[in-house]
């Protein structure tokens, strides 16, 4: 005689952690919750501020950076070479934010597509630097093309992680 055992099919229990909204990570006053509060929850605590001590960017004071005048002129030359297709935008990765890098890549691709053989490199004319506040400088420059046409270049430099970084750019 054989014994028949009934087969019981059950759903596996969910192992996903409980979803916590970003609003639940701050108290009523808008401050991040304490470590003790977060430890009682089953999900990982996240920190949303840009000034994280271990990760993220660190602001740098103007006094801790190189002189902005000569640096702005060199950076203006490099940017106008990228926008004219003479230089790879990858060379400026350390000195630009992701948004600025994407804009430079677009300018470079457009310039290379429109010009099968680039002419003489553009040159930087007048450069004006305004130290707005500590760790921030706004730069405007006149760029001269090979055919003696001029255009304007404006960008904002911020002190970040011990160097000047372009975080806003306008080419026109």
What report would you give on this structure?
This protein has 172 residues and is α+β, with helices and mostly antiparallel strands. It has a domain of 110 residues: Nuclear Transport Factor 2, Chain: A. Helix content is 22%, strand content 23%. A hairpin with a 2-residue loop joins strand 3 and strand 4. 17% of the residues are buried.
The proportion of residues forming helix, as a percent range, comes to: 10-25%
Contiguous runs where pLDDT drops below 50 for at least 5 residues: 35-42
Number of strands: 4
User: How large is the share of residues in beta strands?
Assistant: 15-25%
Q: H/E series, N to C?
A: HHHEEEE
**Shape field:** elongated
CATH class of the domain at 62-171: Alpha Beta
Distance between the termini: 92 Å
Trace the largest sheet across and list its strands.
1-2-3-4
Q: Average pLDDT, to the nearest integer?
A: 81
InterPro entries: DUF6459
Summarize the SSE layout with pairings:
Elements (H helix, E strand, L loop, with lengths): L34 H5 L28 H16 L14 H17 L8 E11 L2 E9 L5 E11 L2 E9 L1
Antiparallel strand pairs: 1-2, 2-3, 3-4
Summarize the structure.
InterPro entries: DUF6459 (IPR045596). It is built from three helices and four strands.
Attribute tags:
172 residues, alpha+beta, Nuclear Transport Factor 2, Chain: A, 3 helices, 4 strands, 22% helix, 23% strand
């Amino acid at each position: 005689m054989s014994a028949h055992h009934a087969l019981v099919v059950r759903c596996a229990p969910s192992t996903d952690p409980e979803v916590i909204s970003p609003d639940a990570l701050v108290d009523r006053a808008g401050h991040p919750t304490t470590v003790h509060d977060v430890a009682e929850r089953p999900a990982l605590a996240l920190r949303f501020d840009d000034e994280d001590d271990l990760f993220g960017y660190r602001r740098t004071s103007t006094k801790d950076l190189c002189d902005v005048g000569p640096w702005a002129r060199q950076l203006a030359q490099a940017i106008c070479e990228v926008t004219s297709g003479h230089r790879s935008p990858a060379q400026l990765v350390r000195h630009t934010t992701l948004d600025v890098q994407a804009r430079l890549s677009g300018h470079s691709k457009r310039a290379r597509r429109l010009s099968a053989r680039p002419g003489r490199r553009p040159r930087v004319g007048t450069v004006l630097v305004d130290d707005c506040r500590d760790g921030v400088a706004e730069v405007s420059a006149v760029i001269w093309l090979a055919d003696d046409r001029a255009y304007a270049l404006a960008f904002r430099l911020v002190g970040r992680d011990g160097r000047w970084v372009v975080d806003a750019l306008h080419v026109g």
